[in-house]
Amino acid sequence: SFGKPHPGSINESGLLSSVNLPVAQFPIRDSLPAEIIDTGKLSSLQLESIVHASQRHQTILPSQMRAGFFIGDGAGVGKGRQISGLILDSFCRGRRRHVWFSTSTELRLDAERDLTGIGCHVKVIDGCRELDAHTKTFGLA
Question: What pLDDT digit, counting tens, does each position of 14-47 carry?
Fold first, then answer.
């Protein structure tokens, strides 16, 4: 475990706490700037989920697709910060394509806040029309 403690009080159900996590072996310190970890921009709880998600993303499925990871944390854990940390880790490792879907267009500002809050200054494309307009600019075509 590393990083600063999570600022909020988090409750974990008995059933969930009875499940053993896989051993965390992903070298997150190789990619994330030390400042993010040392200053608490991402808490130890958030870093733990980023490590496990990143570790899972290293798995290539029989279909040759990269494995995914579901973040189902409740309110107050910082899912936006966790997703931002995943994007920053991948970006630092040379993976430049990321998709972050939200149920509401108002959440774009939250996504931008969480990304810039940890020092990840990537372009956030809001909606399919803007994606179409920027596809060639960003080399996504």
Answer: 887 888 888 988 998 899 999 999 999 999 999 9
Rounded to the nearest 5°, which phi and psi values hold at 66? -80, 140
Quick one: CA dihedral 112, 39, 36, 26, positive or negative? negative
Distance, CA of 75 to CA of 72 (rounded, Å): 10
SS3 content of the chain, % helix, strand, coil (to 5): 40, 0, 55
Residue 57 has pLDDT above 70, yes or no: yes
Closest Cα to residue 16, out of 97, 77, 65?
Answer: 77
| Token pair 């080399």: residue | 139
Contact call for residues 6 and 36 (beta carbons, < 8 A): no
Tokens 């179409």 belong to which residue? 132
Pick 133 or 13 by higher pLDDT. 13
Tokens of 42: 């991402």
DSSP code for 63: T
CA neighbours closer than 13 Å in the CB half-sphere of residue 27: 4
pLDDT (0 to 100) of residue 129: 61
pLDDT at 81: 94
